[in-house]
Amino acid sequence: MTYLTELTFFTHRVPWGLSFVLSNLITEEVQIMELTFRPTMEDLCGALFAQDKFGAIVAASPRFLGFAGAISEKTDRYVSAFTDDQHLLVRGTDGQIRCFLNTCRHRNAQLVPLGHMVNGKMVTRTGKVAPTGAITCPLHRLTYDEKGTLRTALAFPKTPCLKLHEVPIEMVGGLIFETGRGAYSQLASVMDSPGFKKFGITPFARAAKMALGFSETSEEDFGTVTFMEVFGDTDHVDDIHVSSFHQQVDMSTLELEYGEDWSVQFVGWREKTTTVAPEYQRYRGLVLARGGKPKFGAVWMSYGPNMTFEWYPLGKDESGEDQTAFVTSVCIPNGMKCKIVVEFYFPASLLATEEGWNLAQALRDAYMLTAEEDRYPCISMEKGRRTLVENKHGDEGLGPIGPQEGCVAHYYNLLGRRMKALAQREACNV
C-alpha cells in the first residue's frame, strides 16, 4: 500500500477547514478531491482487517461515551450504548458528570444490568441513582458513593477498601469523550464552521440541553468501512432513496466542508416533492406546521474512522426559535461485520409535550426507513468487491471519485493516514 498525507484537488492544495458549494463547482473545470490512499479490493475484503488492524485504528481514536443531555439532572445515570454497556455516566449531587466502568469491584457483576429485572422493574439505559448520588450493585447490595468509593458492604464484617474504576472524561460541548485521545482538538474547528453558522446550527454546544429520545442498535452483515463510505456518498441519494430522503433534501444545494478528521455535507430543504413515503410525509408535514419551510433539509458529518453526527430540522418553538434534532451513530467493527448504535436527541422542551413526542417519533421513523434502504448499497458493494477478489481482480483499486463523492475520498484519505500511523507505531514496538 502507498500512503500519502496531503489533501489535494487535482493540483490545488487546500487547507483544512475548506468549505465550498458543489453546485458552484460543476463547470468545465470541476474540482474533485483526489484519493491519496486507494485501497484494493483485497484490502476492502479482508486485508484492512487482518490481525484486527482496523480495530486497532478505532481503538486509538477518540472514544465517544454519550451526551450530557442524557444526564441533565442531578442523580441521573446513563449506561453507554456506544461502548457495549461498559461505561456508566452519572451526574452527582454536585452537578459534576463522572464516568465509571460498569463493573462492581466485588464479584465483577454489572452495576447497571440492562435488560434484567431488579426489584420487579426492568433495568433501562437511563435512570436514577440514589438521592445521595450513591450507586448500589443489585447482586450483593454493595454501595458506592458518587465518587466511586465503596461505603457499604453488608456481607462483610468490615467494609473493603475499594473504589470503582473511574474513567477520565473531556467535554466537547455536550459530547462526552474519554480523555486523552484528542477529541477536543480534532472537533474544535467544527465550532467555527461557516456552514453551521449559515444554517443557524450550533454544533455540539446545545447537546447539554437535549434529551435522549430513542436508542437503536443493529447487527449488520457489512463492515464499518463500507458503512462509512456509503454515509459519505451523496451520489446515491436520488436513486436509492427515491420516495424517502430524496424527497426531504434538495441535492442541488449540496455544500461540503472538510476538517482534518471530519467532513460535513449541508443540504437544503426540498420544496417540490413527488411521491413521498408515508414516514417522510408525516415528518415533513409536522415540521412545516411549526413555522413553515426550515433553513435546511439535513446536515450529516463523518468523524474519524467510525462515527457520524447528523442534524435535522424540527421547525420553530412557541418563541419562534428554530429547533433541531441531533442524531449520532457509532459503527463498532467486528471483522467484516459491524454493530451500529444510533441515538436520537431532541430539545428537552419538545419531548415534554405530546405534540413534540409525535414529531420526534416521526423523524425517528423516517430516519430508520432511510437506514433500511442504505443496507442495499452496503451489501451490494461488498458482494461486488468479493466477486472481484474471487475472480483474480483483487489488486484492482477503488473506483474513481465523482463530484458528489468528495467525502468518500476524504474518509479513505483519513483511513490511509491512520493506517500509516499504526504501521509507524508497530515498527517502533518491534
Question: What's the short version?
Answer:
With 430 residues, the protein is α+β, with helices and mostly antiparallel strands.
Tags for this entry?
430 residues, 22 strands, Naphthalene 1,2-dioxygenase Alpha Subunit, Chain A, domain 1, 25% helix, alpha+beta, 10 helices, 2 domains, four-stranded antiparallel beta sheet, globular, eight-stranded antiparallel beta sheet, disordered N terminus, Rieske Iron-sulfur Protein
Provide an overview of this structure.
By secondary structure, this protein is α+β, with helices and mostly antiparallel strands. The chain is built from 10 helices and 22 strands. Helices cover 25% and strands 27% of the residues. A hairpin with a 3-residue loop joins strand 17 and strand 18 (262-269). Helix 7 (278-288) crosses helix 9 (354-390). Mean pLDDT is 88; it is low at 1-30.
Task: Please specify the SSE layout and strand pairing.
Blueprint: E1 8-9, E2 12-13, E3 19-21, H1 41-44, H2 53-59, E4 64-67, E5 76-79, E6 87-91, E7 97-101, E8 117-118, E9 121-122, E10 126-128, E11 135-136, E12 143-144, E13 150-152, E14 169-172, E15 175-178, H3 183-187, H4 194-198, E16 210-220, H5 224-232, H6 237-240, E17 249-258, E18 262-269, H7 278-288, E19 298-303, E20 307-316, E21 322-334, E22 337-347, H8 348-351, H9 354-390, H10 406-428
Helix pairs in contact: 2-10, 5-10, 7-9
